[in-house]
Design goal:
Layout (H helix, E strand, L loop, with lengths): L2 H8 L3 E4 L11 E2 L5 E2 L4 H12 L3 E5 L5 H10 L3 E3 L5 H12 L6 E5 L5 H6 L2 E4 L5 H6 L2 E2 L8 H12 L3 H6 L3
Parallel strand pairs: 1-4, 1-6, 4-5, 6-7, 7-8
Antiparallel strand pairs: 2-3
Length: 174
């Protein structure tokens, strides 16, 4: 893990996640009745819970809108959920005003072009291993794991490690 990523991670007070391709593998599943379902990785969910327990706020910004994401955010206790918003930078600015934070205090994990303006603006902008190559080129760092396969957990643990809280977060389960 690079010292640059650890330095960036020290100041994070808010972690934001995209959904499709980050918290999921990016596949869209539609049933005959038109309903949609997604699969989420439990390791990612645990990482998000550990991050929140350590005092880092969390949010989801997704270009798509689906009840499944609302349910997942509620299950994890993620307080800030923005769906159906392609204008992710506008949402970021709204959220920063609401929480009285600066760009440098924000980490973002994304995978595709709509995520790029936020990735480039925040203090720690990362892409998952399965992200579009152009997005990976402009991110501060890239997870080893692919979206939906533990990338969010890796991102959360990076922030916790940078802030010296990972050992305590893990020890809480001993």
């Amino acid at each position: 893990m690079s010292t640059d990523l650890l330095q960036r991670g020290k100041q994070i007070k808010l972690a934001i996640f995209d959904v499709d391709g980050v918290l999921t593998d990016g596949r869209l599943y539609f049933l005959e009745d038109g309903s949609e379902f997604k699969t989420f990785n439990t390791l990612d969910g645990q990482g998000i819970k550990m991050l929140m327990a350590a005092g880092v706020q969390t949010a989801i910004i997704s270009g798509r809108k689906t009840p499944v994401v609302e349910r997942r955010a509620k299950n994890l206790g993620i307080p800030h959920l923005y769906q159906g918003r392609e204008d992710k930078l506008v949402v970021l600015d709204e959220l920063l005003g609401q929480l009285n934070l600066s760009y440098e205090q924000v980490a973002y994990l994304g995978d595709d072009l709509p995520d790029l303006p936020v990735i480039r603006r925040v203090g720690l902008g990362m892409a998952v291993a399965s992200a579009a190559s152009f997005v990976r080129e402009h991110a501060h760092g890239i997870t080893q794991a692919r979206g939906g396969e533990g990338a969010a957990r890796e991102f959360c643990e990076l922030i916790l490690r940078a802030q010296g809280r990972l050992d305590a977060a893990n020890a809480a389960y001993l």
